[in-house]
């Protein structure tokens, strides 16, 4: 049901019946390693290119999610997924192996929640029995596409972020055991004129603020409704800017319940500059770490706000500013 | 409602209340020029780059569709759109100007029907009052990204296709005057191992065959149900291969009602090799030419099967085959 301008509330909140989360060797050394299902020991994943390794991540996360739920591929109606690589080819090739009807998505690092929002709508109203959805990224594939090949050793500023190598997948169904998706707010593009591609957290903060505010207004709730409001990958500086925006707009948010996926993946002694990023970032934190906390009743209601910087190397070369977006999905334990 | 494996049939079929179609100078010389709303006199559209011109096309098509329906932007809940450019940045920048909650899509030249399918589902069940959806491409932006800059004058084989410069947009609503969207079938990725990026029609033909067959099976209809079955951009050779596949599988389709958008945009004396392509191809033919024919009662029931080649320059360099997809949407006059 449409509630307000841009929010769906689900009369029959669908269940996340299982998840699959995979990562690379650097993620295995990280902060939430216990919450992953599988790690690969190098960036190649026994493939010939980083991009094919990227596909492999998506296939593995899918296989794990399906296996855990004991649901075969042919029972799944739709696969909704995206990544950062040009023409989202890693996703396309994974979809070829999955053989599930496929809807390609792109909203950069906000893709995870774009997919969960749409999947939940499908399932909630009987338009899918099962939908498989997620997002993925691969550090080496992203580095050479967006910046420079890692071998060049180019220097980065402190505001830059580290693209997660991984894939996070959720299997959404009408019934079953697990936390339920209760609502979703689709964001609009916000562009405050920032042009520095090495400060995407800062660029995305106003989009997160806009979507969370829209969500509160549409659902007629405030921050007290949630145990946790977690942004996608604003990282160190973006999170502070976002908190600032809430304060300045007379809607202060309790800092202790306002977290960021980009600050949770790696340990403090891993050199990731301002924090983690990439479509996999919010996907693996949500479908690995946060789902487990919901299932252990450490949280009852969370709002995941995946954030995306919708730029490209070409738009940076053409000196355009960075359009940003955020999509918010609420996940709750319902009795 | 889910019908069969991968098809939605809409209990409350949404209406395409208005459309907007824009093109460039080459399209103005074409075969269906009378069906466009607006042409630009050059490839630059008064912008500084082809990519910004590409955004301009999307914004203009949106403005026209909204104006025709007398619906303001703030009444539209969702904008669902995509294009071929890396990270779909022309769409992202257009979404910034539109300020409508935005879901980015990518299925290459099948994007038009991915968007119409999802938009129709949203509207049909009350999850959107209005959804604006479409697809766009820009010949010069696509050429320099996927092939070589036009100025190089590189030679092409007869099986290659010509990327349409244009944008086609539809405004989907619950009620109103106009043809209605009655069902949609989401395709899965089909890859028959073809590797020639200059024969994408041939590569995509099996995907079109697969989706149309799935559609017939799911809805329990055959070709006689439709006045017209029209593929996205198989062009001259792909269309013949697709017809062949139907014959060989004992489901022959009457050639006279099996058309292709890629064969309708340009005149015979325009040098476009095997025909037109690009996400705009099926979008402008459907929302310009075909909608008018439905409204004039020349057709009552059509099935639009947009086809997409999900490759990239990188996957071609890495010697991968071409994964392809097709999404089918039925549009009908209901009394």
From TrEMBL, chains A, B:
InterPro entries: SpoVAD (IPR010894), SpoVAD_sf (IPR038369), Thiolase-like (IPR016039)
Gene Ontology molecular function: acyltransferase activity
Name of one Pfam family that matches: SpoVAD
NCBIfam families assigned to the protein according to its UniProt record, in alphabetical order: PRK08304.1, PRK12404.1, spore_V_AD
Protein name: Stage V sporulation protein AD
Species of provenance: Gracilibacillus ureilyticus
Origin organism lineage: Bacteria, Bacillati, Bacillota, Bacilli, Bacillales
């Amino acid at each position: 049901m449409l509630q307000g301008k841009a929010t769906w509330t689900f009369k029959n909140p669908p269940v996340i019946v299982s998840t699959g989360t995979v990562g690379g060797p650097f993620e295995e050394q990280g902060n939430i390693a216990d919450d992953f299902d599988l790690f690969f020991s190098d960036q190649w994943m026994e493939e010939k290119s980083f991009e094919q390794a990227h596909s492999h991540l998506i296939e593995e996360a899918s296989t794990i999610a399906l296996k855990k739920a004991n649901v075969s591929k042919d029972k799944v109606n739709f696969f909704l997924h995206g990544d950062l690589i040009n023409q989202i080819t890693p996703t396309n090739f994974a979809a070829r192996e999955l053989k599930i009807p496929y809807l390609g998505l792109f909203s950069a690092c906000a893709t995870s929640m774009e997919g969960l929002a749409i999947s939940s709508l499908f399932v909630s109203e009987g338009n899918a029995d099962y939908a498989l959805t997620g997002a993925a990224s691969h550090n080496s594939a992203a580095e050479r596409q967006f910046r420079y090949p890692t071998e060049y050793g180019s220097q980065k500023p402190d505001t830059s972020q580290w693209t997660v190598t991984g894939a996070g997948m959720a299997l959404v169904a009408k019934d079953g055991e697990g936390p339920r998706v209760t609502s979703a707010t689709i964001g609009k593009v916000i562009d405050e004129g920032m042009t520095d591609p090495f400060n995407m957290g800062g660029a995305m903060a106003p989009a997160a603020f806009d979507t969370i505010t829209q969500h509160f207004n549409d659902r007629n709730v405030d921050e007290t409704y949630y145990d946790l409001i977690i942004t996608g990958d604003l990282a160190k500086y973006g999170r502070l800017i976002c908190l600032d925006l809430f304060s300045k707009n007379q809607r202060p948010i309790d800092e202790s319940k306002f977290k960021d996926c980009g600050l949770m993946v790696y340990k403090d002694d891993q050199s990731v500059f301002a924090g983690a990023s990439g479509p996999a970032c919010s996907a693996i934190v949500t479908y690995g770490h946060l789902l487990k906390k919901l299932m252990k009743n450490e949280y009852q209601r969370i709002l995941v706000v995946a954030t995306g910087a919708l730029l490209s190397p070409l738009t940076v070369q053409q000196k355009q500013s960075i359009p940003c977006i955020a999509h918010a999905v609420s996940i709750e334990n319902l009795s």
